[in-house]
Amino acid sequence: MYTADITVKKNAIVKLSTASVNLIAAGEVVERPAAAVKELIENSLDARAKSIDISYAHGGKTLIKIEDDGWGIPRSELKLALESHATSKLIGSNLLDINTFGFRGEALPCLAAVSKLTIKSREQNSVEGAELTVTAGIKEQVKPSAISQGTIVEVQDLFFSTPARLKFLKSDIIESKAINEIVRRIAMVNSHVRFSLRDVTKKDGSKLVFQAPFETGEKNISDRLRRIMGAEFLENSVELFQQQNGYSLQGYVSMPTYSKATSLNQYFFVNGRVVRDRLLLGALRTAYYDFINSGRHPAAVLFISCRNENVDINVHPSKSEVRFKVASDVRTLIISGVRSALSTNGLRANTSLSRATATSFLSNNHRARFPKTHNEAQNGALNEHEINFKGAQGVFQNSDLANPSTRFEKENPVSDASYILDGEAYLGAAKAQLYKNYIVAQSKTGLVIVDQHAAHERLVYERLKEMYKIRKVESQHLLLPEIVELQAGEVDIILEKETDLKALGLEIESFGENTICVRGTPAILGQLDCKALLTDILDEIVNGDESRHLEDKINSIISRIACHGSIRSGRALNNDEMNSLLRDMEKTPFSAQCNHGRPTFIELKLTDLERLFGRS
Ligand code: ADP
Ligand code: MG
Q: Per residue in 112-132, pLDDT tens?
């Protein structure tokens, strides 16, 4: 246990020396090499640099060097730039209207207090540059320097003067990774600047870790993002743009079927600043919570902008946290922006899934071949009897002769009636049901395979949610009320939600100590196993995330209920049923993935099919 040392006497109050102030501040402003890199790049950006070259050695511990072509520092101000709280950026004292990254005048003096720092700079029109070296806060003389326009800051042996802090740094590899990460983040939001990042640890050759050219052209933002996040991210994302209450939101978010194991691929920028803010991360999580399984995370790049007065960036010295004037407006903007972008693009097939389909067909292991033996045919995965052609034939049998397109089909047996009927629709016309769960459809652009169970689950969920919103969930009265036995204690938990559940069409009442009587179930579900449903709802109430908003909690209960009404795999569907499922999917927002983020359909493009058969 800690006990205060009673031998220590009280000292008189004195003002801290500048050196101490800088040492203390250094701990917050540049706590690790990556933070120093961030501060120095931001200085270059503030000086309107168009080109920034960064190099480092040993994870930034022995060397960090930033070279820019910005507007430079005049010789007469070089010394001042290294004084604490000296800045050229704060005009007047309005801390609520800051248009530069820096304004606190802390980075350079802090770095100079804990390293050997050399700054060389030359203004555009001056004949000569100047340089100044500071070692652990001790300044040398300003000297002339051979440098072209711009500034070079070199930080050697960071924290050598504060060995205790040095010990807190991680391995070279981890510190290098952090530098790489921050440079990429800054580069994402500065597509008009050229960047290069080199590891110069090895004397016999530097390693180019990252580079991004100056992006020109209209699509400079997406071009830059493609370079940094990879083409796959953009292909599997939807673009969004939304404005509300003085905040605007722009960027890209991944389709739910393209999810990641961590939230590391979520990038937020506020007025061009790299931020990592819990409010923003939380809003994004909420926007996706019923599209993605709880262990998975979307990828996103979101740029938020607003007038300076609507956001306080001066919350923390490293400025990576922000405080919005009306936080709930920003939260709502993100949730509604993301959800509406996902709903308008809901049916765009996930391209990486489609590609994976094509690739897996192409790989030798999966290339179709005839079985060698009778046995192999018997055990083969593609057992012909499991293919339910009944559905596809239904079109011919039930055809309405008055329907001209069906008549056309009769007269032209080679052509395809349902293609003409539904072929224009995004998900096309149902052709067959395989393994009693997969609907195969032909669309204008390719072959669509739908997981009927997953799709139906989503449809029921979205419909229930809609009906709940307008308080119109129909309940189906059970002819014979069902008595469900639960465990001790569970009855009370579920009865507490009686009113909510009633609004969802589930009518229950208390019936003895450990039993519940179910009188009605949501009509949309059809016949179901009441016990399984109640157990699932209980699990959601007990294990669901308590911190969520009320609406999220209700939606998770709805999601649990929806699973019970789904057409389980294993139900044969006729052609009309299959087509109506496809049409419903096209109409329903968010129907491209089930409530757990699994895709509800994949598409194999006709062009891929032709490629597989060597036709193109
Ligand atoms: P701040 O950025 O908060 O003003 P710094 O300590 O980072 O504080 O920098 C102090 C000053 O030095 C800046 O206000 C700016 O005038 C000047 N400066 C620093 N880096 C550069 C650079 N790369 N190019 C031009 N001027 C710079
Ligand atoms: Mg600065």
A: 999 999 999 999 889 899 999
| Pairwise CA distance, residues 322 & 312, whole Å | 6
Give the C-alpha separation, 277 to 224, whole Å: 23
The residue whose C-alpha atom lies closest to atom 16 belonging to ligand 1 is 88
CA atoms within 13 A on the CB side of 83: 8
In this predicted structure, the answer to whether residue 6 has a pLDDT above a threshold of 50 is yes
Model confidence at 297: pLDDT above 50: yes
Give the CA-trace dihedral at 283, 287, 293, 295, to 10 degrees: -20
Is 100:43 a contact under the CB 8 Å cutoff?
Answer: no
Range from 101-115, 141-155, 539-553 that averages highest in pLDDT: 141-155
CB of 252 within 6 A of ligand 1: the answer is no
Residue 511 has pLDDT above 50, yes or no: yes
Strands 194-199 and 51-57 come out as parallel
Q: How far apart are CA 247 and CA 310, in angstroms?
A: 8
- Ligand 1 atom nearest the C-alpha of 103 is 3
Phi, psi of 442 (to 5 degrees): -110, 120
Q: Which of 260, 306, 307 is closest to 284 using CA atoms?
A: 260
Using CB atoms within 10 Å of the CB of residue 164, give its burial: 0 to 12 exposed, 13 to 18 middle, 19+ buried: exposed
d(CA 33, CA 163): 15
- Phi and psi at 412, nearest 5°, equal -125, 75
State the distance from the centre of ligand 2 to the C-alpha of 37, rounded, in angstroms: 11
504 lines ligand 1 (CB under 6 A): no
Query: How far is the centre of ligand 1, averaged over its atoms, from the C-alpha of 49 (Å)?
Result: 12
pTM higher than 0.85: no
Q: Compute, in angstroms, the gap from residue 228 CA to the centroid of ligand 2.
A: 25
Residue nearest to atom 18 of ligand 1 (CA): 43
Question: For 257, phi and psi rounded to 5 degrees?
Answer: -75, -10
Percent of the chain with pLDDT over 70: 85
- Section 382-398 average pLDDT: 32
Q: Residue 579 in contact with residue 573, Cβ under 8 Å?
A: no
Pick the range with the lowest mean pLDDT from 51-65, 198-212, 385-399, 506-520. Answer: 385-399
- Spatial separation of the C-alpha atoms in residues 500 and 556, rounded to whole Å: 12
Q: Which ligand 1 atom sits nearest the alpha carbon of residue 151?
A: 23
The confidence band for 569, taking pLDDT boundaries of 50, 70 and 90, is low
First to last CA, the chain: 77
What gap in Å lies between CA 579 and CA 585, rounded to an integer?
Answer: 10
Tell me which of 345 and 42 has the higher pLDDT: 42
- Alpha carbon 245 to its chain centroid, in Å, reads 24
Q: How far is it, in rounded angstroms, from Cα 129 to Cα 125?
A: 10
Kindly state the DSSP code that residue 261 receives in the 8-state scheme.
Answer: S
Q: Is 104 in the pocket of ligand 1 (CB under 6 A)?
A: yes
Bridge partner residues of 139 (DSSP): 134
Indicate which residue's Cα is closest to atom 21 of ligand 1.
Answer: 43
C-alpha 553/C-alpha 542 separation (Å) is 11
* Cα 373 from chain centroid (whole Å): 49
Handedness of CA 559, 562, 564, 569 (dihedral sign): negative
Is-contact 209 198, C-beta < 8 A? yes
β partners of residue 138: 135
